[in-house]
Amino acid sequence: MAIKPQWRTLLSLTFLSLAVMSNVARAENIPIVTGQQWMQSSDEAKKAYLVGIANLIEVERAYAGSAANNNDLAQRFGKGMQGQTLDSVRQGLDSYYASNPTMIQHPVIETLWFQMVVPGLKKNQ
């Protein structure tokens, strides 16, 4: 029985969430990196975070393989970030948080998606 890519992604995220929740005994709180931590981090730490996100996207792309389609999260993320470099993304996030201090408590991944990926998708259609 073949699973549609959207369901496969949903199942993957569900299992990942369950795995994270099952580790509650070892880690009371799983931190979500916010703009506050981002702005307090060194450039090297910021780049390491972005490399981690890029690796996660690449793992998802590899997992989807030939069954991937343009609506998959990893495909959309890649298309939205087309033409960006680690430094341009880092600088873009730095500029966003510096210009929007009221958004400093928002997760970096959310900011990355809505401030860079979504506009990039519109630009790279």
In short:
By secondary structure, the chain is mainly α. The protein has six helices and no strands.
Describe the structure in your own words:
Keywords: Signal. This protein is an all-alpha fold and 125 residues long. It is built from six helices and no strands. The model has no long low-confidence stretch (mean pLDDT 82). α4 packs across α6. The chain has one domain.
**Silhouette:** globular
Structural domain count: 1
Strand content: under 5%
Instruction: Name the average pLDDT.
Output: 82
Return Rg in Å.
16 Å
Q: What is the terminal-to-terminal distance?
A: 33 Å
Keywords: Signal
Signal peptide: 1-27
SSE inventory with pairings:
Layout: H1 5-22, H2 35-40, H3 43-64, H4 73-80, H5 86-99, H6 108-123
Signal peptide: 1-27
Keywords: Signal
Features:
125 residues, mainly alpha, signal
